[in-house]
Amino acid sequence: MKNLNRIHLAGLRAVEATGRLGSLKAAAEELGVTAGAVSQQVQKTEAQLGVQLFERRNRLLVPTPRLLAMQPHLTSAMTSLATAIATTERGREDALTISVAPVFAGKWLVWHLKSFNKAHPGIRVRVEATVDLVDPDTSDVDLCIRVGRGPYPGLKSERLLSQRVFPVCSPALAEQFREPADIGKLPVIRDRGQVYSWRTWLDLFGLDEAILQDGPTFSDGSLCLDAAIAGQGVFLAWETLAVYAVQAGQVVAPFPQRPATGLSYWLISGRSAPGTKAKKAFGDWLKEELHRSIGRAEGADAMASRALES
């Protein structure tokens, strides 16, 4: 490894990030420096190696064949270094890194996390909001909160809460509802990424999806909720997304029925990662806070499941 002595690690990081992300700006954002600093590091590394890694074309950096040959090895090496550093964080009792979907983070977690901080002031929580699937065994993430059918092979997973859905709309539009079939009178706001259909709710009343009108479509559940708040139509929301908006009077749930989608919230951790008091404290708080915030008694899901099985 003596050939590494003449190359600065910061320069290799700049080259790897620029090659992987495709631009100086994106690399600068990831590395937490300016685009100019990244450009300087790239040029220094090219000089140290004695080869050209990028072609400059009208402010664009195009990888040369030499960089294309290097890139997989650079990325693998940086990933290994990040994993090595992450292992030093595991088992700490004063810090937790939580991976969670952006919609859940923005519409539920940020509104409730202060109660955890108050109960556990000695534990620092860092939230990574991402839709990417994270492997807690090979990253610096301690816990993941995900929605799915579970369980998750190769990982520790604890079921927290079943997902339930219900229509919401603005208070003004809610005045048009007298019975469930009145759903057909309003535009329907649709979430393009939604993994369940309106049938989940309509089947309770023997209604067909054909009664639903067209309406705006969005690629994000939080945008759908915002559209409902703005009075653009009725949206089939889930509890953790809409609970605050309902409590604040921003939207109204015209009907009390909240059928389960078959999906659940899960708390996931690495099978090889050590259990800590910090993880247990967060898991216990999360389960209790989820049930409390949506007005569901803890353990109700389990009792309902047993009732269905009997």
Automatic annotation (TrEMBL):
Keyword flag Transcription: yes
Any coiled-coil regions, as ranges: none
Keyword vocabulary terms for this entry: DNA-binding, Transcription, Transcription regulation
GO MF, one example: sequence-specific DNA binding
The keyword Kinase belongs to this UniProt entry's keyword annotation: no
GO biological process: DNA-templated transcription
Residues in HTH lysR-type domain copies: 7-64
PANTHER family the record matches: GLYCINE CLEAVAGE SYSTEM TRANSCRIPTIONAL ACTIVATOR, HTH-TYPE TRANSCRIPTIONAL REGULATOR
Family recorded in the similarity comment: Belongs to the LysR transcriptional regulatory family.
Protein name, entry field: LysR family transcriptional regulator
Lineage, uppermost ranks: Bacteria, Pseudomonadati, Pseudomonadota, Alphaproteobacteria, Hyphomicrobiales
